Each structure stands twice: as C-alpha cells, then as structure tokens.
Amino acid sequence: MLAIIKAVERFHLYLYGLRFTIVTDCNAVVYAVNKANLNPRVARWTLALQNYTFDIVHRPGNRMAHVDALSRSVAHVDELPLERQLEFLQLTDPKILDISKKLELEDSDKFALVDGLTYTKIDDELEFVIPESMIINIIRTYHDEIAHCGAEKM
C-alpha cells in the first residue's frame, strides 16, 4: 500500500485530475481501499489517495511476470575481468595509447608498461593510469556511494 502512495505522490503532476487504474497483485490492498473500518495507518494512506480518481484492480502475481522481474535481483552477467576491461579502455584512450607506444620504444622514469597495461611510477610504486572514459564514473562512485551521504541517504 505504501508503494502505491509513494508512486501516486511521485507522479502527482501526471495523475491529478485524471482517472487512472492501479493494478496490484496484493488482494489486501484492494480490500483496504474499499473497506470502511481501517486501522489508523491504513486509514491515513487511503485518505491520501482520496484526492485522486482511480480504480484499483487485483491481478494475480503469476499474470504479472514482467513486473515481478523488475523487483528481482539481476542474475550474474558475464563480464570481462577488470584487467581486460582496463586494458581495452586504455587502448582506446588516445593519451594513454601515445604513452604506451613511447614505452614500447624506450623506458621512462614516469611510466611503465606491464602486461599491456600502462602504469605511472610514484615513489617506486606503480599506479594504474586511469583512462579518460573512466574518470567520471570513478568520481561518481566515490562521491555518491562512498564519501557523501547527503540528506536522502541519512
């Protein structure tokens, strides 16, 4: 029921003033919307829906496999190993490609070529040279998922 409330609130601009149909596989929700005596929480939810003109219809879950698939975990997808992905992305990055071609001809104090991957030398350690195409994704990953919680995630 709460999912219906949240969805209707989210799409308020599109739904308000129009007649629409809510299709659910939960028979209890259909019953709750049409019942007179409800517990206070469910009563508040149905009260929130009274501003809208809608029909609510029950459809068994086995007839809504397409929707059920959206809520299931994604099966394991075969991907290239990370090293192969990085190698491919480095080979498509013009700057890194230029560096690796120079490394094939002569050694460098700043860079190293190891197993087809280009590394930068920092304090006697090798660090992977990030392809330009990965920079935004890396920043987004560390910013959105790790570093900053933000108001929505707290």
TrEMBL record:
Residues 1-52 form the Reverse transcriptase RNase H-like domain. One of its GO terms (molecular function) is hydrolase activity. It comes from Lasius niger (Black garden ant). Coiled coil: none annotated. It holds the Pfam family RT_RNaseH. InterPro entries: DNA/RNA_pol_sf, Retrovirus_Pol_polyprotein, RT_RNaseH. Keywords: Endonuclease, Hydrolase, Nuclease, Nucleotidyltransferase, RNA-directed DNA polymerase, Transferase. This is Retrovirus-like pol polyprotein. The keyword Transferase applies. PANTHER family: PROTEIN CBG26694, PROTEIN NYNRIN-LIKE.
